[in-house]
């Protein structure tokens, strides 16, 4: 049979264990620093200078463009004389170069090489 002292000791041990478990389940107080655990690598963006070189090369290789007119500040319609269909084809060539898909809303905003460089260099999936 159980003695009274043994029963009390058993209850005290059970209560101490349950407090230890509950304490482990409680969130830490706000004053403690938190450690974040990332399950993937942070996005790696491409270097804007590399993006600029690659886009200039893509535009220079486009059939309707005079390669001598291409520079980093050039605008597709104003400086190169491209119409809207040609601009769509240039954007598609840029998509192929960087292995991404540019949404139509963003593609409509690309009117120059600088716009394309800004978009591609900040896109986390561009390769």
TrEMBL record:
**Location of the protein in the cell:** Mitochondrion
The Swiss-Prot or TrEMBL record annotates one GO molecular function as: acyl carrier activity
Under the heading InterPro entries, the entry gives: ACP, ACP-like_sf, PP-bd_ACP, Ppantetheine_attach_site
Its signal peptide is: none
Q: List the SUPFAM superfamilies.
A: ACP-like
Provide one Gene Ontology cellular component. mitochondrion
Coiled-coil residue spans:
none
Q: Where in this chain does the record put each Carrier domain?
A: 49-124
Give a Pfam family name: PP-binding
Family in the record: Belongs to the acyl carrier protein (ACP) family.
PANTHER family reported in the protein's UniProt record? ACYL CARRIER PROTEIN (PTHR20863), ACYL CARRIER PROTEIN, MITOCHONDRIAL (PTHR20863:SF28)
What does it do?
A: Carrier of the growing fatty acid chain in fatty acid biosynthesis.
Which protein is depicted? Acyl carrier protein
Q: Which gene encodes it?
A: ACPZ
């Amino acid at each position: 049979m159980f003695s009274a002292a043994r029963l009390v000791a058993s209850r005290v041990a059970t209560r101490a264990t349950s407090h230890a478990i509950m304490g482990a389940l409680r969130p830490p107080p706000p004053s403690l620093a938190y450690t974040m655990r990332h399950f993937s690598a942070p996005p790696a963006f491409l270097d804007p200078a590399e993006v600029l070189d690659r886009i200039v090369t893509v535009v220079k290789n486009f059939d309707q463009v005079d390669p001598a007119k291409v520079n980093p500040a050039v605008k597709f319609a104003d400086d190169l004389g491209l119409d809207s269909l040609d601009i769509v084809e240039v954007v598609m060539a840029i998509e192929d170069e960087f292995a991404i898909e540019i949404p139509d809303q963003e593609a409509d905003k690309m009117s120059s090489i600088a716009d394309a460089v800004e978009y591609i260099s900040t896109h986390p999936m561009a390769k």
